Structures are given as C-alpha cells and as structure tokens.
Amino acid sequence: MLGCHYYKKWHKAEMMENGYRTEYIFTTKTGNFYDKHSIQTACNRLYGKFGVTCRSFHVYRHTFGTSLAKKGVPIQTVAALMGHSDINVTRNYYINVDTDDKLNAIKIIALLTDN
C-alpha cells in the first residue's frame, strides 16, 4: 500500500502541471472537489477506454450493499456503512437477490426435507 507521502508528492506535481493550488489531495485536474458529475465523467472515460457499457454511478452502491450482504455482514452494519438510518431502505432497495441465491436457497430446503 502506498503511503501518504507518495500521494502528497504526486499531488504537488499534479498541481504544478495543471496550474492550481489546494490543500486537498483528491481533486479534479482543475483543483475542484469531485462531485457526482465529475465522477460520472471520469467513469465514462474509463468505460470508453476499456469498451465497457456505461453504468450509473449509483449501481456501485447497490453492488456494495449486495456484496456485503452476500458475505454475511448484518443488515444493520450494511445500512450504517451506506449511511441509511432505516435498514428497510437498505433491505428494499440496495440488496439484490439474484438467481443463484434463489437456487441455493431451494437446494438448502430440498436437503432439509430429504432428511
């Protein structure tokens, strides 16, 4: 893992090259804060570079919540990490149950009823 000194050195060179000054490290190439639009623009450029279909930035929140839930993280913890005060928002909108999950649940039931 790269240390803070590496990023500070990188950022100083970035500021000199692009002609701006700021104390913040993670900014756009003009020294502005990242916002939804600038992050989406950066993602779209990256998607285009690799020939990947563009996705809404919000898709990553769904992926994050679903991945945590699939790894067994309690719903209360997932909700807290996502900034939701109500776990129902997390459960209803951010945790997706896919076909594999459903098939695995059916297999578990089948195994239980066979005994």
Describe the protein in words.
There is one protein chain. The chain is an all-alpha fold and 115 residues long. The chain has six helices and no strands. It has helices at residues 4-18, 36-50, 59-70, 75-82, 87-94, 99-114. The radius of gyration is 21 Å and the shape is elongated. The mean pLDDT is 86.
User: What percent strand?
Assistant: under 5%
Q: Please give the share of residues in helix.
A: 55-70%
Low-confidence spans: none
Amino- and carboxy-terminal Cα gap? 50 Å
Note the overall shape: elongated
Number of domains: 2
What structural class do helix, strand and pairing data support? mainly alpha
Largest sheet: number of strands, sense, barrel closure: none
Radius of gyration: 21 Å
Task: Quote the average pLDDT.
Answer: 86
Give the strand tally.
Answer: 0
Compressed to H and E, one letter per element, the order equals HHHHHH
Number of discrete helical segments? 6
In short, what is this structure?
Helices cover 64% and strands 0% of the residues. It has 115 residues and is an all-alpha fold.
Please write out the topology:
Layout: H1 4-18, H2 36-50, H3 59-70, H4 75-82, H5 87-94, H6 99-114
Helix pairs in contact: 3-4, 4-5
Descriptive key words:
mainly alpha; about 120 residues; 6 helices
